[in-house]
Each structure stands twice: as C-alpha cells, then as structure tokens.
Target: Sigma-70 family RNA polymerase sigma factor
Amino acid sequence: MSEEELRELMLRALDGNAQAYQQLLQRASSLVRAYLRRRLSSAPDEIEDLVQETLLAIHTKRHTYRRQEPFTPWLYAIARYKMIDCLRRRAQHEALNDPFDDEVEWLAADDTDAGASNKDLAVMLAALPDNHRLAIQHTKLQGLSVAEAAAITGMSISAIKVSVHRGMKALANMWKEQA
Model:
C-alpha cells in the first residue's frame, strides 16, 4: 500500500470512519512487524508484543498526527520508540541478572583498610583537646545523648554541644590536610 493510501486511511480514520481505521491498523501492523523483524533478533512473541504496543500507541497518540504530514514516518517513529523501550528493558534485565563471578574480588572485604581508618581516627581524636575528644567519643562514637555525655564528663549540656561542634570542625580540617 502506498504512502498516499495510508495517509488517506489515517485522515478518514481521524474523521471517524471505523472501517478506514480498521484497515489502517491492519496495514500498520504488517509494516511495523516487518520493520521490527529487520531490526531485532527477537523471538516472534516479543516482536508481536512490540507490534501490539505500537498499535496501542498509535491509537492513544493519533491526535498528535499532523494531517498535512506523511503517515509512515510518524508510524515508524512510534515503532522505533517502542523498540528502544524494549531494548532498554532488556538491557536492564540483563544487567540485573549478571553473575557476580567477575566481581568477587571487590566483594571480598579487606579489613586492613577499616583498621587503618580506625587508627587514623584515633590519631586525629588524640590530637583534639580533651573536652572536644570526650564529647565526640560519647555522643558520636558511643551514641550517648548530649545529656548523658554531660553527666559523665561533668560538663554542661551546652558545653557538650559546643565541644562536639568545634571538635567535628577540627576533625574535618585535619582530614582535609591529610588528603
């Protein structure tokens, strides 16, 4: 069927001719099927699913068709977008199902790095004034509340808050200097 005949069917379908619309969808399904088979090495079921998705998109987006434009570029653009969506879904599915065999090395935890970072933190904490170090150890490392840390150290609640703030700021500066 020629471009002009397809366009005429589409125009008649847009004007409410149900028979023209049915003929258009039959012709379009053949064109889309051939288009997808040339571009995809998929199972016939997947191609048929894409044909149906494309026909559904044609139905839902038919109001976007410009009457003065050719029909087949519009049709193939929709089919192309559906094909790209399918390829994206397939790639995501394959990525999710990739075996981890090649990744075993980075999955194996190396505790030496964790130990080294704990030593670095201990060294940096030791460099802080006692009130800053104790406030951080109690509240940030041991998870105590500010009130509990104040009771243990004999400092006021506001002094604990200020010491934590100033100590964390000092630690951040030390960390930047090391990097």
